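As a warm-up, study this chain.
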Amino acid sequence: MRSQVGYMDFSDRILSWYAKHKRDLPWRKTRDPYSIWLSEIIMQQTRVAQGLPYYLRFKERFPTVEDLARAEEEEVLKTWQGLGYYSRARNLHATAIRVTEEFGGIFPNNYKDLLTLKGVGPYTAAAISSICYDLPTPVVDGNVYRVLSRYFGVDLPVNSGAGIRYFADLAENVFNKTHPGSYNQGLMEFGALQCVPKNPDCESCPLSESCEALGRNQVARFPVKLPKKEVRKRYFNYYMPVDPGFRTLLIKRTVGGIWQGLYEFPLMESEREVSDKQAGQRITDGFFPEIEHPRKILKSNPVPLIHKLSHQHLYLTFRIVYIEKDLTGGIPIAEMEAYPVPVPIANFMETVKNSYF
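Now compare it with the structure written out below.
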């Protein structure tokens, strides 16, 4: 066991490092709860380079929580398009409505009430309450798990019940109550820039002489995690109908699960990849009553496109179906990109517009 610095010294070193190395980010220049909440929701499981443009886009389109509450859900989903995890966007909108209608546009100023907001869990509530209201609420996210597990050499899996409880207590013990907001941001930033997942620069680390994982030469081993569940495979067969007036059809997903509230072309889900003959047979069998009298079917991608989500892989095949009658409820192909759609469908739309129309 290496001789570790005391809890107070640990937090002081994190604060000192943060003062020198923190990134210049817009949400670091404010204590406005709306801005902090928005940044935390967007940045969950998203790199800053990807999330920053979305944050700026949301702030420009919806400057206040009241503006976001007044927006239509489809506009919120369209603004969010590309970030994935669309339930967060729906929760974002629902919380904006509640904060506006029930709290007069003012976010709760305590951890307990923040937890009652849709989509706000312990991590987000701790971030808002510490950064905006100076409350002593430690955050625990992936970066914090990594830093604490390495420094203290904790073998408990961070995704186990015992591990979650242990790290919550540990985060509380090392917490700096004098500067709660800066410390929380500093610890997360330390994990994002210094104690990174792969090949961290331990030589320049201010905690290197007392880091347990480094002392054991096992930095890459931490944090310990239980194996992930087996990834589910799903096969999505999309049919883009095109009528004589160059209109197509988009259908809103109302079922729960992935992409709820987004639009897609008529879909046939199958247990495995289907042949062109099987795909065509579905149309003639009346599987899609809105797509009648196919004149020609073109397969857009020769092999399925793989779209990887956290617990499932989607194998997507797109087919363009030229039909002889006008579509009921059809939309001009030139306007289809205005609808909020999943990223692989947005990519397909761009391809077909450039290649076929």
